[in-house]
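Q: What structure does this chain adopt?
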Amino acid sequence: MNRLAQIAVSLVLLVLVSGVGAVAWNWAPDRPVAELKPRWALPPSQFVALDGMLVHLRDQGLRDDPAPIVLLHGTSASLHTWEGWVAALQTKRRVISLDLPGFGLTGPFPDGDYRMAHYSAFLAKVLDHLQVERAVLAGNSFGGQLAWHFALDHPQRVTQLVLVDAAGYPRNATSVPIGFRLAQIPALAPLMDNLLPRAMISSSIRNVYGDPSQVSDALIDRYYELTLRAGNREALRQRFIQADDGQAYTRMAEIKVPTLILWGMRDQLIPPDNAERFKRDITGSQLMTFDSLGHVPQEEDPASTVAALLAFLDATER
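A:
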């Protein structure tokens, strides 16, 4: 074998070894929920049997609150994204947070239906189970879309609406996290079922923060491990496949409850012009923006954002 051929063989072997090493390093099959509970379902977490699922939720604070605050997280997040808000609210109100189906520890819908109407019906069942007749609904991103959908489907059950960088209008993102982009490529599904580079999760979180330096290793761990919950990766793919919501946003003007819109001005996933559309379409709504924050302002700066919520509730409940 001549010198050139030897070099070529060596390069091929190097590529193969590197590829095997990369697969081994990023090998991450599904993890059973029982394995994740000890770290991510600490008290006061509970699991409620509904629709063939064990729904992970927390029900905290005052028990005699006539209109509890219900917190709805965004895509690939979990109830933990609201921990800062819950800490500030639980001495004043009853606060309910939950892992929506397909995310966190709750895991996938058994029937694989991830359309918004199904989520809205599911949320009604959660409130029925918890004996909540009327609630303040607050949602971030996808959770915000669920909140305003629920307000349209069940207007009598919503006292106030809080939309935090909410989804709903035709997408006009200027930057999309790499994890979301890959989840929308069908050909990668078999590979992504067992591979999950932690660096990809890190990049995706930093992409949605206004100040990426605030993203800690502990935060990355949480998103990474909960993504591995059995069934969540397939659920995410199905969410994107079934995400077409038609023209539901054209009904936004039907929302009549007091509405607060909170927005991070550095949000590239759902840019701030969406906030202006919500404000225009929901009569009497209030808009507050945060110059230094990104797509998850309630997580990035819970103190400032929950202060805006409390002022809104105080003003609209007098």
